[in-house]
Amino acid sequence: MTFDRAQLVDVDFSGTRFAQFTVHGSEFEECDFTDAVFEQLSMGTTCLRGPWDGVGWPQSVFRDCVFRRTRFASSTFFGNVRFERCTFDRSRLRDQTNTYEAEFVDCVFLGRVRSVNFWGRPTDHQAALRRDRNDFTGNDFTDAELDYVALHHIDLQAQRWPGLPGYALLDRISARVEAVLPLVEQWQDADHRKLARFSLEFLADTALMQNDDQALVSPLDMGRKVPPALREELFEALRRTSSGIAPG
Fold this sequence. Notes:
alpha/beta, 2 domains, 4 helices, 18 strands, disordered C terminus
């Protein structure tokens, strides 16, 4: 199915299997995609016919839509798309890295979110998009399980993060990592020391590069192959080095 400058309101797509679903400059409002399956999906394509001229790129909008147990195709091309007040409830939102131009505002994420990139700045085509920042604010991740989720140049304090034990929104990541590295050197197992050093240095580098030395941190960031007791010890030490920028 192809939607070209279409407007759809209160359409029930639940349970539908789409071999191909392409959207260009369209709006979907209060639509239900529960249990829908997308084998190929482009949610905000540049153009539908011929080569793109690189000039105009209309935005597609999904507003108050429900994606419950929806199966997104891996590596979906999100394109210039905006989600407003949408619910992603246990949707198969995983292995999504082609999200450079996607905007999310006041959306709710429930269940597992795995291997997804969220971008606060589009990496290219700013002139065609007519913006140099993606709107990413007010999103609720409090009941989401975040696994390998990368946040690029996003205001972390403008979102709601998991309130479960084991997550912390922290500032001064580089200084914290430097402070806890001596603790790692006291561990007896050389492999555990190596894994933890690599994980901490990676955490510090990405936080500095992506979000002004801030990050949402969990014990898994201490090294997934590090024994759980050591992960927890290191995570708590990282939190205690100075106060965080948000509770929990």
